[in-house]
Amino acid sequence: MKNYVLTPGPVPVPEFVMLEMAKPIIHHRTEEFEEIFSNATKGLKKVFMTKEEVLILASSGTGAMDAAICNTLSKGDKTLVINGGKFGERWLKICKAYGVDAEEIKVEWGKAVDPSIIKEIIEKDSDIKAILIQASETSTGVEHPIEEIAKLTKDRDDIILIVDGITAVGAFPVEFDKWGIDILIGGSQKAFMMPPGLAFIVLSQKAWEFNKKSDLPKFYLDLSQAHKNSLKRTSPWTPAVTLVIGLNAVLEYFDKIGLDTLFKRHSILSQATTEGFEAIGLENFAKGYTSTALSVIKSPEGIDASLIVKGLKEKYGMIVAGGQDQAKGKIFRITHMGYVDKGDIIAVVAGVEGILSELGHNFVAGAGVAKTTRILDKL
After folding, report:
1. Alpha-carbon span 290 to 294, nearest angstrom
2. Cα 19 to chain center, whole Å?
3. 10: cis peptide before it, omega within 30°?
4. Is residue 279 within a helix (H) or strand (E), and if so which, with residue range?
5. Where are the domains of the chain?
6. 3 state DSSP class of 329
7. What is the pLDDT of residues 140-155, one digit of tens each?
8. 15-256 and 258-376 share one fold
9. Which residues fall within 8 angstroms of residue 84, CB to CB, at 6 or more apart?
10. What confidence category does residue 99 fall into, taking pLDDT thresholds of 50, 70 and 90?
11. What is the CATH number of domain 15-256?
12. Which CATH class is domain 258-376?
């Protein structure tokens, strides 16, 4: 049986990328690779919408989250963490590991943070050095209002905004320079439609000033070393050569089709998935705050979502993600990132219809597929 990987990371990888990565390995300290590395960093600047140097790390996205903390803060510094899901929770764990104090705004899963709450807290407490947040919370499908939040910190030199954009950059616009974000993170295994293994991070000039005062331990993730070497078209340590070659192919493809086309595609896939499931009585978990990078769908009342996830895998070879922690058994998650196309979305909606029919859910058979297909005609 053919497997369809439709999880929000890792995502399907295009054949042209796999073919590039299948070519014979080259040495990383050669002019040939330096040219590839340089082209990749230039391409990343376009996707991150910045003039600053975007650094390429050989790590998962969490490595870049770790680097964002240890390169800008000091032991005992205070941060404000927006915790609205599993990955907001990760910011808390990283802060704790480094001895950084973290005040927490707990946000109900499936909802976005209210910027006015952040504004009130940072105006009252001048000790807060950084706001830590996700642009797109992968565990809930929520898009947080980053542009509005950036307005709160853009003109202040005593606080930085650190954004985990791992499930956002490349899926929808996150305008680093224009909005005034201070640190933005990405990962290869999401909208960059690559295997896991690369993380991307960009710092504003304000964040680099914070870097000069940071006293937290760092070695492999020392961004000042990464930055110095990146300007010389290389990296301080052995890079993930094959992945960088694949990344360069992806960025050339993005440049060819244009970012507007890329973002529109994610938006239409998101609409088609959401409305297709609504047609058979299923709701979006993040209704009103929806990230177009993925769809997070609530299971019908009385049906455990894990049965849908299991059924899709066993009966149709479709791999989707379930819920975590408090959302376990309540939701299932489907990617719009990576090498996902019309047929994949139609297939997964049809697959869910088939599983729900077996589980006794009452709906008009084919209604979801029909709705999804009509919307996908826009592509």
Report:
1. 8
2. 25
3. yes
4. none
5. 15-256, 258-376
6. coil
7. 999 999 999 999 999 9
8. no
9. 106, 107, 108, 109, 111, 112, 113, 134, 137, 140, 142, 144
10. very high
11. 3.40.640.10
12. alpha beta
